[in-house]
Amino acid sequence: MEATRGRKRRGRLLVPLLTVMINMSIAWGNFFKPFNVSYDHRALIIDGHRRMLISAGIHYPRATPEMWPGLIAKSKEGGVDVIQTYVFWNGHEPARGQYNFEGRYDIVKFVKIVAANRLYLHLRIGPYVCAEWNFGSRLLSILI
């Protein structure tokens, strides 16, 4: 009985989580082709096919933009379907009102490379980053 309750609880959490992940991919409509997604309490069904998605985490600011295509291509070659990354807000707004989306922080370029490799994207928008990043990537101006 306890095991059944645990499975039901996981199922209730899994559906919204996966829905958010898939919807984030759809939000980048110019980069990804449209697809139909459903869930039958056993698996995700994408365009009529059951899928077990394999994910790899690539944190874009931890590599140079020149490295991104190779890292993403190697992930795909290894059987990955989804690239997962955080949005590192304290890198994108190092000071209040000062924005940075260039170089290592060019998230649009990173997303386009993921799309060019025909992979899904799980974009973890935060604000907290649980990846050994200073202050969890929270903006210092918020903490003060």
Overview of this structure, please?
This protein is of the alpha/beta class and 144 residues long. 38% of the residues lie in helices and 15% in strands. The model has no long low-confidence stretch (mean pLDDT 78). The protein has a three-stranded antiparallel β-sheet, with no helix packed on it. Strands 4-5-6 form a three-stranded parallel β-sheet. It is globular and about 45 Å long. It has a single domain, classed as TIM Barrel (Alpha-Beta Barrel).
Report the biggest beta sheet as strand number plus sense, adding barrel if it closes: 3 strands, antiparallel
Overall outline: globular
> In the CATH hierarchy, what is the class?
Alpha Beta
Q: What's the arrangement of strands in the largest beta sheet?
A: 1-2-3
How many runs of DSSP E, i.e. beta strands? 6
Give the terminus-to-terminus CA distance.
Answer: 48 Å
The helix count comes to 5
Produce the secondary structure layout:
Layout lengths: L1 H26 L9 E3 L4 E3 L2 E3 L3 E3 L10 H10 L4 E5 L2 H4 L14 H10 L3 E5 L15 H4 L1
Parallel strand pairs: 4-5, 5-6
Antiparallel strand pairs: 1-2, 2-3
